[in-house]
Design goal:
This protein is an alpha+beta fold. The protein has one domain (about 5-250): 2-Layer Sandwich (Arylamine N-acetyltransferase fold). Helices cover about 30% and strands about 25% of the residues. The chain is built from seven helices and twelve strands. The protein has helices at about 5-10, 20-30, 40-50, 55-70, 165-175, 220-235, 235-250, and strands spanning about 20, 70-80, 85-90, 100, 110, 135-140, 140-150, 155-160, 185-190, 195-200, 205-210, 210-215. The strands form three sheets. It has a five-stranded antiparallel sheet. It has a four-stranded antiparallel sheet with strand order 2-3-4-5, with helices on one face. A hairpin with a 2-residue loop joins β11 and β12. α2 (about 20-30) packs across α7 and α6 (about 220-235) crosses α7 (about 235-250). The N and C termini lie far apart (about 45 Å). About 35% of the residues are buried.
Length: about 250
């Protein structure tokens, strides 16, 4: 069920990129119109400030990298133009097999979704998400993922398989980038034994692993949180502080 090397070669370029809404709030202050950045601008910000972006940023960026390698890809998603919107990417390898690639939720690996492939399985599988197994269920119109945690808890996520037209994707992206609700930063941490998942979510932080979830200590102010986020992600501390201040103001309005 794991992706072939042509797909993985592009995917691995993003191994050390956070998924974050820090850039969203920082960039929101600077521009009145379109909030979705171009891939060229995302790369410039990455080089200058260590930022990356949210699921829309990362999907557009990933598709651009697939295109540069001659790999056809397209976006799929759910709940577009709502606060619950999420997008991911389908990459099609040389053999015509489709792989689901989700940088927005920082999957460990892409996963095969081609039912006609001999490699396709609907077993509960390790090695695709941190802290649990995943089961894939594909039909003609949608994918359903079941995530099975070590404690037995099961959650689900569904995606419409219909490719999102580019203009509609950009429209949904601009909508998403204009929603300043709560700060979120996620980062994969690669260790010899497993891939950990570090997360900052609205002034709480924790680490997920195959053995469960570990909460980190609370901090006092945004300067301290900026230091912790910087140490995990490399994002410029001044940008983190400015962004967190924006989120705080939004909370109090």
């Amino acid at each position: 069920m794991k992706a072939t090397q042509d797909v993985l070669r592009v995917w691995r370029q993003f191994d050390h990129y956070p998924m974050e809404t820090i850039t969203k709030a920082w960039y929101y202050l600077q521009h009145d119109r379109n909030k979705q950045r171009s891939v060229a601008l995302m790369k410039e910000h990455r080089n200058q400030f260590g930022t990356s972006g949210n699921c829309f940023d990362l999907a557009l960026w990933l598709m651009e990298e697939f295109k540069s390698e001659g790999i056809f890809s397209y976006a799929i998603g759910h709940d577009l133009k709502t606060p619950n919107a999420h997008v991911a990417v389908i990459a099609v390898n040389e053999a015509g097999n489709k792989y689901f690639c989700d940088l927005g939720d920082l999957w460990v690996n892409p996963i095969l979704i081609e039912r006609n492939s001999d490699d396709y399985s609907e077993e509960e599988l390790d090695g695709f998400v941190t802290g649990g197994k995943v089961k894939v269920e594909v039909d003609l119109i949608e994918i359903n993922f079941k995530f099975i945690r070590p404690n037995g808890k099961v959650s689900q996520q569904k995606f419409d398989l219909q490719p999102i037209q580019f203009n509609r994707l950009i429209d949904a992206a601009n909508y998403s980038q204009s929603l300043i609700r709560h700060p979120l930063v996620e980062m994969r941490i690669f260790t010899p034994d497993e891939v950990l998942h570090w997360e900052f979510d609205s002034w709480n932080s924790f680490i997920s692993s195959n053995s469960g979830l570990k909460n980190e200590s609370k901090l006092i102010n945004n300067n301290e949180w900026a230091e912790r986020i910087y140490l995990q992600t490399g994002i410029n501390k001044d940008i983190i502080i400015k962004s967190l201040d924006v989120y705080l103001r939004m909370l109090h309005n």
